[in-house]
């Protein structure tokens, strides 16, 4: 096909077109669609909509296109007219692939469709050879066909070089008569018309070729851009359809002007260059002799054949392969090429009728996906011979948040975000379910929150665990978040409680019926910290809930490709459009493993201002450049979207579970888990991208110490991961198509800049002090080196608090010094001139920052703290790097740490260890110390020093002393002794009182007293007693336990049935449910294999600490030596700049001296002298800056494209008044659903909103009326589905007052009428399904509790009768317990435990 297509193209270009005038040639371009029309007719299949009408139009189009085979050969009577039908027929074969459908009943079409599928998978590889073959065919056929039009074909080669040079051309010159009077013919007068010889312009063929190539390329690029941003109708189909008519109109006008005035174009075009115009009276003969009527037939037939370009169905930012069948184009016929190449089969993958929009309960994980897999047969399609169903392509999203000691405000921000996602998903579900539309952005959503170390010792029982205050905090604030999002008071139903092998689980149903699941990790049962939480949800969601589905592996592959994990932090704030932009990137590129958004720091104070600028520059320049020239190296876990298929790669997810053994692992794996995960994905060939339009907001450190501690983790892990990537660059470049050697060089340059950054800052400070204070280089060098060496010394010997304090003091001093640097730099620039390297670099840096801020208008004010960033450069790029590397051996998290409760056994163990340590110290001191030997020792040391000097144990000098850490414990132990004795006495008295009261009432002791609980609570605290007191305490506790056992039966506990924490009243009266056996087994195997808690082996910890210190020493030695060598070389070159330098060509100073004695004028040129290393390093940073600036510009264009694709442009959309009613509803269905499901004002739809509009005016507030209304308020409807149904069933034409939420939409009357029609059609459809016994929510008994449509319709006022709210409650816990039936196991009942065990073990026995 390609060979025949090329032959037709050559025949048209070299034989047919040269013999036609320009008008006929343009007309002929509308006659190249013959074979596409034939293939379109043959591909029609049974069941196609309006098949008969389409067949008739196809036949008419074929006949219309076939007339081109006859008309011009008859009209153009020349010897090569036979070539017209041959060229047109062969040329039309090039677009066969787009018009072949595998559903055709014709066998040959089916065979061609198989070839099409094979070619689609291997197109780029195949076209490597096809392109070469086409070049050979074009060249050979050109020579063969030129023999028909040229006498000597060899002239093509002989005159090839001359054609690009100026050569002689013979032209027919026409001279215009100046005088109107007639003069007699004179023999000496020159003729008016004559042939002359003129010189041609050089490189004319090149210029013509460049114009043609550029025009075709721009047409293709902008056409593709219009398709990508979803403005295809106005900006692609419309211009393409008008290309030939507009071109003909322009050519007719140009020919008419030239006919009237041959010299009109003399100053525009060369005299010898113009196209062939029709002869005669063109305007009069256009219809009759030029056959314009037949051209109109060709144009209309081409419009029908390419009608698909008016109805695009692809997603936003679709790849070129999805937009065009063949991603290449034909420059000669660019308009026909891109129109006929635009895909016809880009149909939506998911239909509304194929989506299971019923929300199932969270009882069995397999049921969740079974609703996806169990479908009718007509929804399945063949995917490479395998059964892949359209439903498998639905986007499924799991939001996984890792929680770690968030404040209430931070937690509310995260919950607000997921509640907004729940509302958005519910609106899309209702729009598809009730309004019968197809939403390409529909997704399924579920939230998982993972609490690290979620349990603590109970205040009532020293041996039992309860959830900590952060879990209880989430239970309290979740209602606040729901109320904030829905702008009305909402109270969610208490969470369901699940005992699990790793701790516990709480499950909420949000107002949109999506699940919010809190996983409570007990660090005694499962490994804690963020990386292991990520391993938990990866293996649970992807390994258990996806891979264990009873479906075909091909379906699992498609589901995994369309399943995403949205990683969140516990304090993140975002909106649904931000997530949708990330999903767009995922849909655009199937090889995309992760995508991150623009993170905005939130908080108050100077440190937050600094981070605003730092984050802005990092995203504007660094991440944007990484996105454009390679891949983003880090997709932060606070807000990123990961593809399930990429995470499930064996060398990604399995390797991510690697336990840290090597010292470097602790730095790379545990300190920067997000960056390491991205590194693993890059090394497996996946791409990571950045979306600047996807905004998210997170709290950042507000204090200096917290900021330094955070960056102490980030800096070493970043360097370790980049070094890992650079060290394995050959394999990474080979396996990852998005990472190239230039990109590796760019990252290596950044790494060199990072390593030598402190040395560069140091040299900058030295030079600035020399310029500002007019001191010598050595004096400035000494003044700067002493504080640096002192800070390094402090980082090695002092504890973290002193290090932070010294760093803060030095940062303040350096901030003042940077003002001197600013003055010194200004002085230096004034002396060296604007052409000096320093001036150029400073101007370029400032300009790039300012331009970046201008093209990010919404973030422009982030550049304002740039001055704070400038004065903080020494602190952040010198002190912070030194602090991070000096503390490389510290692998603790360091931020958001809180005090944890300890059991009595732990306290006693610590007390014994403390006493043993004190005894050992006394023995050593008395044995080894000379003063102790003489009996002159001063007793126990109460202080220790950061700096300690000793001489043979004769004396010890301690500097920067502070109390020992154990001293605080000793004091607390002494205080707890007194509290313990008091608690024991009170407990004994209360115990006797309880016994007496119980005997009086004739009942047993059913509960412990509150004072007893307080005594137990006191026993948790630190206590230390003598050996006799310990014995007495043990005796009393044993007797107390014996008494309690005799009075109160001990409850048998099973962590998978009735754990102690599940009875906590703070968890509210939620149902208690249990995991199925398969999931329990999964968690047990998972914990045993990957997540078993790490052993607290002191020997192992000591060995790891020693190895980490050794690693720290090696790293910091190499780092300091590199910077020392760099500083020494540059500084010495600066001192000897007179002997070894490079003359800078810019900014040369010219001195002119006149010598009177000799009358001479002496001109001296003074060049700026630069040391070689400094010049190289300045050039090095300049190259990086240029690369980042260009990368930012290109990424900004991509972001603009993404934004334009996500919104509807006013100039490109159809006017509201011109849209049909159905089209208006289809276009605004999601917005209509969002308005109909609003919870606010649901009970007051018949009333005005004046209360809301005038609520801020004190004089018009109806405070008393509102309080009275709330006092008599009934239980509110709390689910979005119920609110939607109530309003939807209440809609009536002409009664817009019933649903004022739709008042904001235009054409409300027409909208109401269409909504009523769709409601009626939906009711009929469900009634028919119920008659047939089909499964739906109105006929399935298990779903009848959700409400029947006939019950809703029977209510005249649209009220919901008998509807049980399954997700949200508007009453108290006591009312809930009376009004709703719950399956609650009595955790203290022996029979319930036995029953549960029998139920769970019965299937296992049957299986055996």
Automatic annotation (TrEMBL):
It holds the Pfam family ChitinSynthase_IV_N. Residues 1-168 form the Chitin synthase chs-1/2 N-terminal putative transporter domain. CDD domains: Chitin_synth_C. It comes from the Eukaryota. Residues 1027-1046 have a biased composition (Acidic residues). Residues 897-927, 965-992 form a coiled coil. Its main location: membrane. Keywords: Coiled coil, Glycosyltransferase, Membrane, Signal, Transferase, Transmembrane, Transmembrane helix. It is a multi-pass membrane protein. The chain crosses the membrane at residues 22-43, 55-75, 81-100, 124-148, 204-222, 234-254, 744-766, 778-799, 805-827, 839-855, 867-886, 1115-1135, 1173-1194. Residues 1379-1394 have a biased composition (Polar residues). Residues 1000-1048, 1371-1408 are annotated as: Disordered. It is an enzyme of class 2 (transferase). Residues 1396-1408 have a biased composition (Basic and acidic residues). The keyword Iron-sulfur does not apply. Residues 1-25 form the signal peptide. Its EC number is 2.4.1.16. The keyword DNA-binding does not apply. It is found in: Membrane. This is chitin synthase. The gene is LOC106458718.
């Amino acid at each position: 096909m390609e060979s025949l297509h090329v032959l037709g193209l050559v025949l048209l270009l070299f034989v047919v077109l040269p013999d036609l005038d320009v008008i006929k040639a343009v007309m002929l371009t509308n006659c190249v669609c013959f074979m596409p029309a034939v293939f379109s007719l043959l591909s029609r299949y049974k069941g196609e909509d309006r098949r008969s009408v389409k067949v008739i139009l196809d036949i008419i189009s074929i006949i219309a296109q076939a007339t081109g085979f006859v008309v011009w050969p008859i009209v153009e009577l020349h010897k090569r007219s036979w070539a017209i039908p041959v060229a047109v027929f062969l040329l039309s074969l090039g677009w066969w692939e787009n018009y072949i459908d595998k559903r055709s009943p014709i066998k040959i079409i089916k065979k061609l469709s198989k070839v099409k599928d094979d070619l689609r998978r291997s197109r780029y590889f195949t076209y490597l050879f096809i392109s070469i073959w086409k070049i050979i065919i074009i060249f050979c056929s050109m020579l063969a066909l030129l023999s028909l039009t040229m006498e000597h074909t060899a002239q093509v080669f002989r005159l090839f070089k001359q054609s690009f040079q100026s050569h002689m051309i013979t032209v027919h010159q026409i001279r215009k008569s100046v005088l109107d009077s007639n003069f007699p013919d004179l023999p000496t007068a020159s003729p008016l018309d004559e042939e002359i010889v003129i010189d041609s312009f050089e490189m004319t063929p090149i210029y013509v070729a460049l114009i043609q190539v550029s025009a075709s390329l721009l047409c293709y690029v902008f056409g593709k851009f219009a398709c990508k941003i979803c403005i295809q109708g106005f900006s692609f189909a419309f211009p393409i359809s008008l290309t030939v008519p507009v071109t003909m109109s322009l050519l007719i006008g140009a020919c008419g002007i030239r006919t009237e005035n041959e010299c009109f174009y003399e100053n525009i075009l060369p005299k010898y260059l113009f196209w062939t115009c029709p002869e005669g009276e063109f305007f009069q003969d256009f219809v009759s002799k030029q056959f314009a009527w037949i051209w109109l037939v060709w144009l209309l037939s081409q419009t029908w054949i390419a009608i698909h370009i008016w109805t695009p169905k692809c997603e936003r930012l679709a790849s070129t392969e999805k937009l065009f069948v063949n991603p290449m184009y034909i420059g000669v016929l660019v308009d026909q090429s891109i129109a006929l190449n635009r895909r016809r089969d880009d149909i939506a993958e998911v239909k509304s009728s194929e989506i299971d929009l019923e929300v199932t309960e969270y009882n069995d994980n397999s049921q969740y996906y079974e609703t996806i897999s169990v479908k009718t047969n007509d929804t399945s399609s063949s995917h490479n011979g395998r059964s892949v169903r359209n439903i498998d392509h639905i986007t499924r999203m799991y939001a996984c948040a890792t929680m770690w000691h968030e404040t209430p405000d931070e937690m509310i921000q995260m919950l607000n975000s997921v509640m907004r996602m729940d509302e958005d998903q519910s609106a899309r579900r209702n729009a598809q379910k009730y309004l019968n539309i197809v939403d390409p952005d529909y997704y399924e959503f579920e939230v998982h929150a993972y609490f690290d170390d979620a349990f603590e010792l109970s205040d009532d029982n020293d041996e039992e665990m309860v959830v900590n205050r952060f879990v209880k905090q989430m239970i309290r604030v979740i209602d606040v978040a729901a109320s904030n999002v829905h702008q009305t008071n909402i109270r969610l139903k208490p969470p369901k409680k699940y005992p699990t092998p790793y701790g516990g689980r709480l499950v909420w149903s949000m107002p949109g019926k999506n699940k919010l699941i809190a996983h409570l990790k007990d660090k005694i049962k499962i490994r804690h910290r963020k990386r292991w939480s990520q391993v938990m949800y990866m293996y649970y969601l992807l390994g258990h809930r996806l891979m264990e589905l009873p479906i075909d592996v091909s379906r699992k592959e498609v589901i995994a490709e369309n399943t995403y994990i949205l990683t969140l932090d516990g304090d993140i704030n975002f909106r649904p459009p931000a997530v949708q932009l990330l999903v767009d990137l995922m849909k655009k590129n199937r090889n995309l493993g992760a995508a991150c958004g623009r993170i905005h720091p939130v908080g108050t104070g100077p440190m937050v201002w600094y981070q605003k600028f730092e984050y802005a520059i990092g995203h504007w320049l660094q991440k944007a450049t990484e996105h454009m020239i390679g891949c983003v190296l880090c997709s932060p876990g606070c807000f990123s979207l990961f593809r399930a298929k990429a995470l499930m790669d064996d060398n990604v997810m399995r390797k991510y579970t690697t336990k840290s053994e090597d010292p470097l692992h602790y730095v790379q794996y545990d300190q920067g888990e997000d960056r390491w995960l991205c590194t693993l994905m890059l090394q497996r060939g996946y791409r990571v991208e950045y979306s600047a339009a996807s905004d998210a907001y997170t709290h950042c450190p507000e204090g200096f110490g917290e900021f330094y501690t955070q960056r102490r983790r980030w800096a070493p892990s970043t360097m370790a991961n980049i070094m890992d990537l650079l060290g394995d660059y050959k394999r990474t470049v080979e396996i990852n198509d998005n990472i190239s050697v230039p990109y590796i060089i760019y990252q290596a340059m950044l790494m060199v800049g990072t390593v030598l950054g402190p040395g560069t800052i140091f040299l900058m400070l030295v030079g600035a002090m020399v310029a500002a204070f007019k001191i010598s280089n050595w004096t400035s060098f000494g003044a700067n080196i002493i504080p640096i060496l002192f800070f390094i010394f402090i980082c090695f010997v002092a504890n973290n608090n002193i290090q932070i304090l010294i760093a803060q003091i030095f940062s303040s001093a350096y901030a003042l010094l940077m003002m001197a640097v600013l003055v010194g730099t200004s002085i230096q620039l004034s002396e060296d001139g604007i052409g000096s390297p320093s001036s150029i670099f400073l101007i370029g840096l400032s300009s790039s920052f300012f331009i970046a801020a201008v093209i990010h208008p919404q973030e422009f004010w982030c550049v304002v703290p740039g001055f704070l960033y400038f004065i903080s450069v020494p602190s952040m790029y010198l002190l912070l790097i030194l602090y991070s590397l000096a503390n490389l051996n510290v692998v603790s998290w360091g931020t958001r740490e809180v005090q944890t409760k300890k059991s009595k056994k732990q306290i006693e163990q610590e007390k014994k260890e403390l006493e043993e340590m004190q005894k050992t110290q006394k023995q050593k001191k008395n044995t080894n110390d000379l003063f102790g030997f003489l009996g002159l020792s001063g007793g126990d040391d109460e202080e220790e020093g950061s700096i300690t000097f000793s001489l043979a144990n004769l004396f010890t000098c301690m500097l920067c002393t502070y109390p020992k850490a154990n001293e605080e414990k000793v004091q607390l132990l002494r205080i707890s002794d007194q509290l313990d004795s008091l608690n024991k006495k009170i407990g004994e008295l209360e115990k006797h009182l309880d016994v007496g009261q119980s005997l009086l009432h004739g009942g047993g002791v059913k509960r412990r007293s509150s004072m007893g609980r307080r005594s137990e609570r006191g026993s948790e605290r630190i206590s230390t007693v003598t050996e006799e007191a310990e014995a007495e305490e043990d005796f009393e506790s044993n007797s107390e336990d014996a008494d309690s056992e005799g009075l109160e039966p001990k409850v048998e506990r099973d962590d998978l049935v009735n754990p102690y924490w599940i009875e906590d009243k703070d968890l509210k009266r939620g149902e208690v449910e249990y995991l199925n056996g398969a999931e329990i087994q999964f968690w047990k195997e998972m914990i045993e294999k990957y997540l078993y808690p790490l052993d607290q082996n002191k020997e192992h910890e000591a060995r790891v600490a020693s190895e980490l210190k050794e690693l720290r020493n090696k790293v910091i030695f190499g780092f300091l030596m590199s910077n020392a060598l760099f500083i020494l070389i540059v500084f010495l070159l600066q001192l000897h700049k007179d002997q070894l330098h490079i003359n800078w060509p810019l900014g040369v100073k010219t001195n002119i001296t006149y010598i009177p004695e000799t009358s001479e004028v002496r001109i001296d040129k003074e060049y700026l002298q630069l040391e070689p290393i400094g010049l190289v390093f300045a050039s090095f940073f300049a190259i990086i800056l240029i690369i980042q600036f260009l990368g930012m510009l290109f990424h900004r264009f991509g972001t603009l494209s993404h934004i334009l694709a996500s919104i509807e442009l006013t100039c490109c959309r159809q006017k509201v008044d011109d849209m049909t009613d159905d089209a208006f509803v289809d276009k605004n269905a999601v917005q209509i659903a969002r308005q109909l499901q609003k919870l606010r004002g649901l009970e007051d739809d018949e009333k005005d909103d004046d209360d809301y509009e005038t609520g801020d005016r004190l004089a018009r507030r109806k405070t008393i009326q509102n309080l009275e209304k709330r006092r008599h308020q009934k239980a509110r409807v709390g689910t979005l589905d119920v609110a939607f149904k109530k309003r939807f069933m209440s809609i009536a034409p002409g009664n817009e007052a019933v649903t004022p939420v739709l008042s904001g939409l235009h054409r409300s009357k027409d909208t109401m009428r269409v909504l009523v029609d769709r409601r009626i059609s939906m009711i009929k459809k469900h009634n028919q399904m119920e008659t047939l016994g089909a499964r739906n929510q109105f006929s399935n008994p298990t779903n009848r509790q959700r409400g029947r449509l006939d019950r809703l319709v029977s209510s005249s006022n649209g009220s919901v009768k008998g509807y049980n709210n399954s997700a949200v409650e508007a009453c108290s816990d006591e009312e809930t317990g009376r009004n709703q039936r719950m399956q609650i196991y009595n955790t203290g009942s022996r029979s319930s435990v036995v029953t549960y065990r029998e139920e769970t073990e019965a299937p296992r026995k049957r299986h055996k």
